[in-house]
Every structure is written in structure tokens, then in C-alpha cells.
Amino acid sequence: MAVKRPVTRSGSGDYRTEIGTVGDLPWCDIFNTEGYFRLHQCGRDLFFSQVSGPQGEVHAVVHFSEIEPGIFRSPARGTYGGIDLKTTAYTPLIRFLDEVEAHLRESGARTMTLSTAPFAHDPQKSAWLFQNLSERNYVVELSQLSYSVPIDDVDLVHKMKHNNRKRLRKCAREGFVFSERGDAGAKDVYDVIARNRAHRGYPISMSFAEIERMMETFPGALTFYAVHHGDEMVASAVCVRLNERVIYTLYWGDVPGYGRYSPVAFLAAGVYAFAREKGFTLMDTGTVPSIRSGPAAGLIKFKENLGCKATLKLTYSKEL
């Protein structure tokens, strides 16, 4: 663990801001942990925590990396970062933001950017953070549609649109089989997704070597799923446990030639059922590009047909 160096500011009261990692905290999303911060360090990187008491109880964390001269971003790389709070029922967040902003300014930052979790993950926390940041002159730099589906006692098939329900049942009749693959099957799962992306002309953002490093850093946090038709793996998914409540579909896709079956619908139903067994309450299927772009319309329809609903995912910025 890095040595912590207090940031001394006047009027900090019972709370103090420290620089340096604090170990992985059970209430943090995976993207705000020490492990993720270390995995993507890229030069000038700063991990802030707000603590209180002699034991250093942590109440809030945020980390930044200088991605361009004077531009500090949270996170350097990943779906989101931003400020993670143990609870919103306390007022020292304003003090914490004062100290973080002051230190970034002293470090040469001209702009700070915070990419935050979708509102669906925790609507109360997201609304509370939006209000606090707005009052501090942060602006919304980017607004995206994020699609997710609550996990409850209702099977996903009953949340899907009619055509997907038909395709899912067709897959079942044709002998398609869903399975959780374990770490040993990670490469086969990844290869199906890479093949799908190549066929559609889309890049894949992480190499398999990067997937392996994430597996080593967060044992058990990545899970791998597949759909087989006979001996062939025809669809697969890589999912990430973001916290105790939310599972995130990092990647999924099917192989060319199976469009008439739509095995991804069968795959999604399997992931949903598996996540329910593990106690998750939300399945996050990711964002879509700007709705003005052509591919977004098809992707939105695909997610809505699976039973997903849209909420906002915001990225804030502030000139220092």
C-alpha cells in the first residue's frame, strides 16, 4: 500500500483528505478500487481519500490521472470512476472537493473530468452527486444513454419483447445450452467475441492479455458465459462484478451465421438467471453511442428488445 500523505487545509475539522491508496474497500465499485487504479496508472496519478478518526475510517475516494498536460481524468481508462461515497448522509463532501480541486490546481491541472456511474446503479447517490457538482460549477461534458434491467423474481424471457421471446424458445427447442465457463474457458469466450467484432467491423477495447491482468488483479470479479449448439460455441459474454448488487456485461456477441436464432437473447437470459442466483439486483448492459449516429438506433432497439430500460450516465468537467 502506498504511503499516505495528508493534504493540509484549514477548517478540515474531524475530516481530513489524504493522498495515497487505502486498500480495496468493500463499498467501492471495482473501478474506484486501489487495484483498478494501479492497473491503469499512466504517469501522474493521484488517489484521494477522505478519512476521519484515529483509525482513518474512509468516507469517500476519487482518483485522477493526467491523460494530457493539464487534463486530469477520473478514471484514466474504464467505464466510469468519479467520486465513490460510503454514504450520502454526510456534509463533508464539499470540504473534500475543495481539497481535491486545490491539490489538482497546484499540480498543474487546468481541467478535471469525472465520469460517473449510470443513474440506475444508485439513483439517490447519482441525484445527490449531480446536485452537489452542479452547485460547484461542474458542467455535463457528456451525457450517454445507459441500458440495464433490474434482476428480480421475473425471468428475463417475460421482460423481453415478443420476437426475442420467440427466438429464445426456438433456441431451447433446437438444443442450445447455456453454461458458466470459469476462468479456464476465458480465452474461448473471448475469441467468440473477438470474431463477432471483426465480422461487424468494430474494435474490441481490451486485448486478452489485459483481460488476464484484470483476472489476476480481481480474482472472481470477471465471469465468463457461453451458449453452445452441439459442439460449437455460438455466443459468449464477459461480465464484471462491479459491486455486490450490479453485474456488468463488458462484452457479448455471437458468431456469424446464427442471426436467425439470436443466441444472444438466450445468452442474456442465462446470465440474468445466473446473476439472480448470486444475489445481484441489476444487470448493466452498457451505454450506446450518440443517438444521432446510425449504429445507435439498432443497438437501442436490441437492448430494449431484451427488456432493458434507459437511464443517464454523465461525465462532468470543471475548469480550475
Summarize the structure.
The chain has 320 residues and is α+β, with helices and mostly antiparallel strands.
CATH topology label of the largest domain: Aminopeptidase
The CATH architecture of the largest domain is 3-Layer(aba) Sandwich
What is the arithmetic mean of pLDDT?
A: 91
Overall morphology: elongated
Helix coverage percent: 25-40%
Secondary-structure-based class equals: alpha+beta
Cα gyration radius (Å): 21 Å
Structural domain count: 2
Provide the fold topology.
Elements: E1 5-7, E2 15-19, H1 34-39, E3 45-52, E4 57-68, E5 71-74, E6 84-85, H2 93-106, E7 111-115, H3 123-135, E8 139-150, H4 162-173, E9 177-180, H5 186-200, H6 208-217, E10 222-229, E11 232-241, E12 246-254, H7 263-277, E13 282-287, H8 294-305, E14 309-319
Parallel strand pairs: 5-7, 12-13
Antiparallel strand pairs: 1-2, 2-3, 3-4, 4-5, 4-6, 7-14, 8-13, 8-14, 9-10, 10-11, 11-12
Helix pairs in contact: 4-7
Main features:
31% strand, 320 residues, alpha+beta, Aminopeptidase, 14 strands, 14-stranded mixed β-sheet
Describe the structure.
The protein is α+β, with helices and mostly antiparallel strands. The protein folds into 2 domains: 5-115, 3-Layer(aba) Sandwich (Aminopeptidase); 152-280, Gcn5-related N-acetyltransferase (GNAT) (Aminopeptidase). 30% of the residues lie in helices and 31% in strands. It has helices at 34-39, 93-106, 123-135, 162-173, 186-200, 208-217, 263-277, 294-305, and strands at residues 5-7, 15-19, 45-52, 57-68, 71-74, 84-85, 111-115, 139-150, 177-180, 222-229, 232-241, 246-254, 282-287, 309-319. Strands 1, 2, 3, 4, 5, 6, 7, 8, 9, 10, 11, 12, 13 and 14 form a 14-stranded mixed sheet that branches. Strand 12 (246-254), helix 7 (263-277) and strand 13 (282-287) form a beta-alpha-beta unit. Helix 4 crosses helix 7 (263-277). The longest helix is centred in the middle third of the chain and has 15 residues, at 186-200. The radius of gyration is 21 Å and the shape is elongated. The mean pLDDT is 91.
